[in-house]
Amino acid sequence: MSIKAVSERLSDLGEGPHWDVNTQKLYYVDAFVGDVCRLDPATGVTEAVHLDGITTFVIPYRSDRSKLLVTLNRQVRKLNFTTGESELLTELPPETAPARFNDGKCDARGRAWTGTLVPQEEEKGHLYRLDPGYVLTQISDKITLSNGLAWSLDNRTLYFIDSEGKKIYFFDFNLEDGSASNRQILIDYNEKEFEGLGVPDGMTIDVEGKLWVACFGGSCVLRIDPATKTILRKIEMPCTNVTSCCFGGPHFDILYVTTAKKEGVTDQPQAGAVFAVTDLGTRGQPPNDFVE
């Protein structure tokens, strides 16, 4: 196994990585800076489009890959990465103020899923599905900090992270109608096995159905077996705040890991970089892009 920083840019809070199959580049966001980023891992160069607010995920449109689905504070927007222009698609309902969006991802049908948080408040966030016409449909509530998403290989289970709740949940999922029900706890980071590993943040899944979970404050990425609820592998990272991960590369056998700086810490010179983890012995699948 090898771990290598592949971005010259050090993000304040790198998040939401999404591999672009067509360009062989990695989209991600520098959330609080408000930048939507595109990294060429071959050169280490990151292009960025700046938006005025907090950006939390970026997903290409399947029909036109120059267009990106992004969140900006309480808004969902369509961004043209080339021109930097963006169009408002929808926003959170007024009664949810002061909620804002956080992480997001698409299911196998190209429906976008995203959750919210309310700063300094517990269990005020929700999980939403973005339906045709850019209509937000509430799926679940009582979430403190909505975060990583993944689907099982058979698309019968939706995995979902509440970071501040320190839990990974799972739902019964129906791919046909996009319903998710019967929320249950899969992993509780308050349990002894997960002691000292920070909180679960972003997440992806490999071709063997195992979850890869970035641990914010835990300096690692965990490979977890959802069937046995056990840690199969721990990848130690060279910085404390590990935010998210996704598989990429021509064969989807590179795990790209986003990270964040840690205030007051000077002995982690690569904190905020995007890392490539290779020779893992497994791989992921092509990501799901957004379908209008």
TrEMBL record:
GO terms for cellular component: cytoplasm. Binds 1 divalent metal cation per subunit. The keyword Ubl conjugation does not apply. InterPro entries: 6-blade_b-propeller_TolB-like, Regucalcin, SGL, SMP-30. The keyword Zinc applies. It comes from the Eukaryota. It is an enzyme of class 3 (hydrolase). It is found in: Cytoplasm. This is Regucalcin.
